[in-house]
Amino acid sequence: MSTLLLTGVRPLGGPASDLLVEGGRITRVGEGLAAPEGATVVDGRDQLAVPGLVDAHAHLDKTLWGLPWRPHTAGDGLAALIDNEHRGRAELRRQGVTVAQRATALLGAYVAAGTSHIRSHVDVDTAAGLDSLHGVMEARDAFADRVQVELVAFPQSGLLVRPGTVELLEAAVRAGADLVGGLDPAGFDHRPAEHLDAIFAIAARHGRGLDIHLHDGGELGAFTIDLIIERTRALGLAGMVTISHAFALAEVPGPRLEGLLEGLAGQRISLTTVAPGNRPPLPLARLAAAGVTVGLGCDGIRDLWSPWGDGDLLGRAALLAWRAGARRDQDLAAALELATTGGAGVLGLDGHGLEPGCWADLALVPAATVGEAVVAHPPRSLVLKRGRVVARA
Ligand SMILES: [Zn+2]
Fold it and tell me: Which CATH number do you get for residue 113?
């Protein structure tokens, strides 16, 4: 791997520094570093450097990125959305548009926006089997040197309500899915204990983590979180479980929330949020105080669920901050932290950051402060993945 000296950048808005990159990692940070012989020197032009952005909750297989605009056609409610997606996907198949093509197009946008890591859920169901998983794996392999992608086998159409799906999830893990997913064990699948027992058993058998979609709000969601904490503890899976959305945490009364936070922190269960516009935001300050790791995700992008999204985690951090009413630079910086450090914690990444020893995964942003970078989220002028330039404006 080549040596690169990035001069005159401001790590997260700090004083101007040079970054020396050797063997894919940042080896020195300081003022006036000398370029080793044969090193490529890149002038950072006093821009802000941010660590690689981490999308902790994506759906690469669902995107229609790169296709003509498609007006949203689904009815209201989860079942109507799932039904609409089945019809839309069948139409795409008839048109010969593959999952690999769509996911590849979106990965290009993610890389240009400075994304270094993605955790993507991938639909596994009895209609399409593992087709989406194989398609996304093809796209992931094509981008392996530009962005690292981990995959969750996701029972989008339900688990126990669709006999045969439990077996398919296990087959997905054997075929290369990194984690086991779940979907509203109570509200959608109607048998919460059995649903969770089934997916935890697969995870424990294969030594994998879990990432469970939980839209159920109020006490139903809180009850499900209790069941997840209980199983994480019983199976010794602390640090390997994520709950996505977890809207219930924004809806239960204070004392109930405190108990849940204690259980989540105790089992190092992480959360992801996608800055939803139609549900109350998670109590991020209380989660941080309790020591619960939270990552940020773009969720589905331009898909049959929603026409929104563009794969820019800085833009998503702006949405999160806007929803939270953030104004001060430090509050805007906290939103960006979810998209970097928080996501790295959810994915269990080592060496994510801008300090010596970290992987040289970073992006340059033409902005004066982190606050401006979040609010304006201008196009990234340079993106490095493990020390290689992978995108340039
Ligand atoms: Zn999702």
Answer: 3.20.20.140
Q: Is the pLDDT of residue 1 over 80?
A: no
Give residue 60 CA to ligand 1 midpoint distance, Å: 10
Write the DSSP assignment of 224-269 as a string of letters.
HHHHHHHHHHHTT-TTSEEEEE-GGGGTS-HHHHHHHHHHHHHTT-
User: How many Cβ atoms from other residues are within 10 Å of residue 378's Cβ?
Assistant: 14
Spacing, Cα 101 to ligand 1 middle (Å): 20
pTM: 0.98
Q: How far is the CA of 300 from the centre of ligand 1 (A)?
A: 7
Q: Is the domain of 84 the same as that of 35?
A: no
Q: How far is the CA of 18 from the centre of ligand 1 (A)?
A: 39
Q: What is the pLDDT of residues 188-202, one digit of tens each?
A: 999 999 999 999 999
Residues 141 and 266 in one domain: yes
* Residue range of the domain that includes 18: 4-51+353-392
